[in-house]
Amino acid sequence: MAASVFDSALFSRLFPTGEAGRLFTDSAEIRAMLLVEGALARAQGELGLIPEPSALYIHRAAMEVQIDPAALAEATGQNGVCVPGLVAAFRAAVEAPEHAQYIHWGATSQDIIDTGLMLRLRQLLEQCEGTLRAVLQSLATLAEDHAETPMAARTWGQVATPTSFGAHAAHWGAPLLELLEEMPPLRQGALWVSLSGAAGTAGALGPQAPELRAKLAEALRLHDPARSWHSDRTPILRIAGWITRCCAALGKMGEDLTLLAQSGIAEAAPGGGGASSTMPQKQNPVTPGALTALARQAASLSPALSGAALHRQERDGAAWFTEWLTLPQLCLSGASALLLARDLTRAITPDPARMAATLGATGGLVHAEALSFRLAQTMPRPDAQAAVKALCIEAGHSGTPLADLAARDFPDADLTGIFDTRAQLGQAPTEARAFASTVRAL
């Protein structure tokens, strides 16, 4: 097995990453850092901090030069960071010492690495947003089309009360809708430029350091935090938290669909069932299982990333290394989960007949709560609860429908609509349609 399923040709369909996979490669990291070096030089030239001809030369060269990641391996192993080797290789490739001397002027390795990372994370969030919108549209269709399709709600794995499949889909989508709404403030509060120099004081950048940082942020379309964040990993944690919550929401949908596709329930087909190597009848819910696995993966990586936020003093190599080990895997888990969910939500096929059969098989017990509250209109609530509980036990033992037992014991009670499943959907249809309407208005 490959070190990561995200780098594996064998598992590329099971855990797809799409365009996001290209953002977490050596080549992408080097290209992003070169763009930062080029933009930094150009901004310094505009402010007169380095000669403008050199600034323009470096800016152009940063977009054209090709640097082999393998050529930086030795220096990276020695230095613990790739930037010293990258700067040396960039200067050599420029073949113009009079200009090359101004490459990386006043910056530190962490400025270049963190800012380059933010350029890649910005692209990741853009891709995630597009896929998330597609997932929401598919869920809105399910919510709208099945707003009044009755099914059993389940708590603790047992049939509880009636709900609708549309409401079920809306509940899957609600946290995803909130995540989409959080995207603008997430970009503002996380996609930051870093330019603070060796120990966060910007000493080598001179008195124009704040202006230079703002200009670099503008050039790269990042936000200026107006401070150093070398040892404050809040922006990383914000993005990681968003991804973890996204995976959790999609994993919950995966768990539910695994149950709904289970033998003996079969109330919804997730589409594209997987085959067994030996059992011809099997149609395994592969994609729902993958969503659950990715949610667990994200949940396991998140604490490690939180631990990596504990930076000693102005910079902590060990904490930084931990971030490098975990953040790419978390990001690709989120990207993969969204791609899988996009295809899954387009393929979900509910089975209203099976849902109705499940409700019917309870012998009316699914309406026990409604019955107890109806009886509580004419007797104390505890008495009504106890009476209905006794009837439920009798129904379970005798096989007599709860409606018949209730009519026998409470002949004068108005039980109109109590055992009508559609009449007992509560706010489920309203919530389903409200969710669909909100998504359509995006």
What's the short version?
The chain has 442 residues and is mainly alpha-helical. Helices cover 62% and strands 4% of the residues.
Structural summary, described in words:
With 442 residues, this protein is mainly α. The chain has two domains: 14-148 and 159-354, Fumarase C, Chain A, domain 2 (Up-down Bundle), CATH 1.20.200; 356-440, Ribonucleotide Reductase Protein R1, domain 1 (Orthogonal Bundle), CATH 1.10.40. It has 18 helices and four strands. It has helices at 20-23, 26-46, 52-64, 73-79, 83-94, 97-100, 109-145, 165-181, 183-190, 209-220, 234-260, 286-308, 317-347, 352-361, 368-375, 381-398, 402-409, 428-440, and strands spanning 150-155, 158-164, 268-269, 349-350. The chain has a two-stranded antiparallel ribbon with strand order 1-2. The chain has a two-stranded antiparallel ribbon with strand order 3-4. Helix 8 packs antiparallel against helix 11. The protein is elongated, with a radius of gyration of 29 Å. Residues 363-436 form the Adenylosuccinate lyase C-terminal domain. It comes from Sediminimonas qiaohouensis. InterPro entries: AdenyloSucc_lyase_C, Fumarate_lyase_fam, Fumarate_lyase_N, L-Aspartase-like. Keywords: Lyase.
What distinguishing features does this structure have?
442 residues, mainly alpha, Fumarase C, Chain A, domain 2, Ribonucleotide Reductase Protein R1, domain 1, 2 domains, two-stranded antiparallel sheet, two-stranded antiparallel ribbon, 18 helices, 62% helix, Adenylosuccinate lyase family protein, L-Aspartase-like
